[in-house]
Amino acid sequence: MRLDASGRFCSRFLLRVLAWAPGHRVDLRVGVDAVVIASCAAGRQAVGSRGELTLPVSARILAGLDMQARVVLVAVPAQDLLIVHPPVLVARLLAGHYGRQPERHDDG
């Protein structure tokens, strides 16, 4: 998924999984390598009429997301969350995971 120049993105599939329709109120929390979007009746943002969400510039900077960045979206329906990760984090996690795998030797 790619953010546009204004920090907007749209994933209708994940919004359907979360049951977030246009107008649904959300709030943002920024972590070191992620932006956590949570359902919140008094949220400062809302899902747009076309199913888009916007990450403000300050949130993008704090989470390490570049302008028009590619992002990895993770829906957590049980907690009513959508988490936005930079791909660098996912690559780092996968490299760490596969770096711990036992070596395979081909005796053939």
What is the count of structural domains?
1
The number of helical segments is 3
Cα separation of the termini: 42 Å
Main beta-sheet annotation? 5 strands, antiparallel
Unreliable residue stretches: none
Residue-averaged pLDDT: 87
**Proportion of beta-strand residues:** 25-35%
Rg, Cα atoms, Å: 17 Å
Helix content: 10-25%
How many runs of DSSP E, i.e. beta strands? 7
Structure class: alpha+beta
- Order of helical and strand elements: EHEEEEHEEH
Task: For the largest sheet, list the strands in their spatial order.
Answer: 4-2-3-7-6
Shape type? elongated
Overall description:
The protein is an alpha+beta fold. It has one domain. Helices cover 24% and strands 27% of the residues. It is built from three helices and seven strands. A five-stranded antiparallel β-sheet has the order 4-2-3-7-6. A two-stranded antiparallel ribbon has the order 1-5. Strand 6 (72-76) and strand 7 form a beta hairpin. The chain is elongated, with a radius of gyration of 17 Å.
